[in-house]
Amino acid sequence: MTTPAILPERGLADRLTALFWRHPRLLLAVLLTPPLLWLGVVYLGSLAALLLQSFYSIDEFSGMVKEEFTLKTYAELFRAQNLDIILRTLLMSAAVTLGCALIAFPIAYYAARFARGKWKAVFYLGVMLPLWSSYLVKVYAWKLILAKEGIITWAAEGVGLSMILNAILAIPGIGGNSLSTSPLGTFIVFVYVWLPYMILPMQASLERVPTSMLEASADLGASRAQTFRTVILPLAMPGVIAGSIFTFSLTMGDYIIPQIVGTSARFIGLAVYQLQGTAGNIPLAAAFAVVPIVIMLVYLTIAKRKGAFDAL
Amino acid sequence: MHSDRASLGLRIAAIGGLLFLHLPILLIFLYAFTTEDKSYQFPPPGLTTQWFGVAWNRPDIWPPLYLSLWVATIATFLAMILGTLVSAAMARTSFFGREQISLLIILPIALPGVITGMSLRSAFSIMDIPFSTWTIILGHATFCIVIVYNNAVARFRRLSGGILEASADLGANAFQTFRYVLLPNLGTALLAGGMLAFALSFDEVIVTTFTAGQQSTLPIWMLQELVRPRQRPVTNVVAIVVFTATFVPILIAYYLTRGGSETAGAGK
Prior knowledge:
The complex is a heterodimer.
Chain A lengths: L11 H11 L1 H31 L2 E2 L6 E2 L5 H5 L3 H34 L4 H15 L2 H12 L4 H8 L3 H9 L12 H25 L3 H9 L4 H30 L3 H4 L7 H9 L5 H24 L7
Helix pairs in contact in A: 1-2, 2-14, 4-9, 4-11, 5-9, 9-11, 10-11, 11-14, 13-14
Chain B lengths: L7 H24 L18 H8 L4 H31 L5 H13 L2 H14 L6 H26 L3 H8 L4 H30 L2 H6 L6 H10 L4 H26 L11
Helix pairs in contact in B: 2-11, 3-6, 3-8, 3-10, 4-6, 6-8, 7-8, 8-11, 10-11
């Protein structure tokens, strides 16, 4: 007697296995249902609630939310003071993105092209640790650094550059009483906190530039500067755009940093936070929160056309 | 000719950039020992270790710490289950709507935190859900799923499908294959994902302020101290605790997945 090639079923587990084998879609459904239910209900449900709230309005006399469809709340966004907030946020986001790109490029370029062995690991960890380490601790560190009695003032006095520091602080628009109460300070902290988000995609796209292209460029007589401008930079562009998605979106939504370092001038994130909290105007807060979503959707569409998603 | 050595300017800019990323954190440590508690005077007028004792005895620090640990633990646990399930589904098969699902998973961290927070706040307000520990966990688990997913899906891709078939050929059923073949192979990637998710949740403040109501997690406690400072060096001691609680898991995650194509933490 030979043993049969098909083993007998040994209970429920085997029966289920056979069922999954015959119907792979069933297994897929079993795997996907819990996470999709969670993300669909909790996340998409909340986004829908946000949209819904933004079409409600607040009753001016009672301060209660009126639950009927209106565009009044969105119209409020176009008041001068609210347009100011949106414009200021966009300007800061653009400046931070530019600042991050300038500082990130040498780091990403060196890590991708020249770092080998031990240095490769140093650069990887050196970017990854600040990326993941506590956001609040990083912001707090800068409050210490930028304070009027802090290390920068001390260092500037030490090397006799107080004049320059004071001259910078005297510039209207970016200066202030001290670095920690000036828009310049806010800018510095934003750049610091989001810098790793720019470095990583930049490095990924630079690593994909083939060495043979650089050699070909050199063979054809290009100088280093020409190679950089006409070969490396265009090929690294998707990475820069991918990084800029993060820095732009994160700056636009942040409300902690302008609260701790900077003037009391409001940004979109801070406006949302204050409107839903102390002011109790949830519809207007929701409408404000829709603004970054719309801007990011436009931004992402442009980025997609430029091929930025291949660098993620 | 293109050379294999970086120019001096590039090297200075690169190393300088790395230092710029790391030096500020050191100041947190220094200021925890200063004798000056009314301002951020530099250099510190004197050094003392008394603030560690003061922080230990401050009763208002412990409840937020426990709450943060509890929230991070539960959120990580939920995210690990949901993230593993979805990565198992996404790893091999292609099906209708796959792209949309991957977008849906990434969205909670791709959109600014204030949007996730405000969305949850709107939903709680519309459905009259009172704030509780579970409203915090709901938000945290949502944006932690993608962290576990990123780590697990990369490992799934590297796994050869052959070992699953071999296991089936040798008579194992789906559950035995999962227990004895899949889980040991996924183990370190899941652990790394869990570590990163824990670090992210423990430190999260933007979404949390919208979902916590009157409760205080440790980051919210810190935020209040930053806005209205009392004993400043005590805040530094707590900052060191928060820093360590996020730093150590990240380092472990790195060592768990080092050398593979899917080193942890490349995307947050």
